[in-house]
Amino acid sequence: MYDYIKGKLTKITAKYIVVEAGGIGYIVNVANPYSFSDAVNQDIQIYLHLVVREDAQLLYGFHSEDEKSVFLHLISVSGIGPTTALAIIAVSDNQGLVRAIDNNDIKYLMKFPKIGKKTAQQMVLDLAGKFTAEPAESRKTQKESPSDHFALDEAIEALLALGYKASELKKIRSFFEGTDETTEAYIKSGLKMLMK
């Protein structure tokens, strides 16, 4: 129903961003809200997918058409809903995901939150060969200016929202204590550590 929205980015939370268009603030669920942190109060374009449920109508947003395509492929798999699909594409490099699916790498796929062996096998069965080309890197480069420990707290909150357990994130927090990075940088680095 919707292809994209153009408007002003007015708010960022751990789970979603708010884009104002035509005087209306739209809640858009995205994989890594803090990857939009350099665009606050600026006009942006977000690719959209609408999910209609009995109790809600939810917008999911993406940096690029490639990222949206990966999402749509993922939610076509039995056992993978929109929230889990967002958690999967939150990893900044989706090329690893595509290679794992095409190479039947079940162990790699099971590293994603809420993906068990059965669902991983279903991903391979349903999606192997479906990606004609590996998705291009769609994330914007992170800001060079570092922030304080508030950024680490935001990153941990965002990873929790993606479905990772607090026990898994303890090592992330202890590893980055004393460092000074942006929220987006912490999320990217944390996701890489969780996928090892």
How would you describe this protein?
By secondary structure, this protein is of the alpha+beta class. It has 3 domains: 4-62, Beta Barrel (OB fold (Dihydrolipoamide Acetyltransferase, E2P)), CATH 2.40.50; 65-127, DNA polymerase, domain 1 (Orthogonal Bundle), CATH 1.10.150.20; 149-194, Helicase, Ruva Protein, domain 3 (Orthogonal Bundle), CATH 1.10.8. It is 40% helix and 19% strand. The chain is built from 8 helices and 5 strands; from the N terminus they run E-E-E-E-E-H-H-H-H-H-H-H-H. It has helices at residues 65-75, 82-89, 95-102, 106-109, 117-127, 149-161, 166-176, 183-194; strands at residues 4-12, 16-21, 24-29, 43-52, 57-62. A 5-stranded mixed beta barrel has the order 1-2-3-5-4. Helix 6 runs antiparallel to helix 7, helix 6 (149-161) packs across helix 8 (183-194) and helix 7 (166-176) packs across helix 8 (183-194). The longest helix is centred in the C-terminal third of the chain and has 13 residues, at 149-161. It starts with a strand and ends with a helix. Residues 133-148 have low confidence and may be disordered.
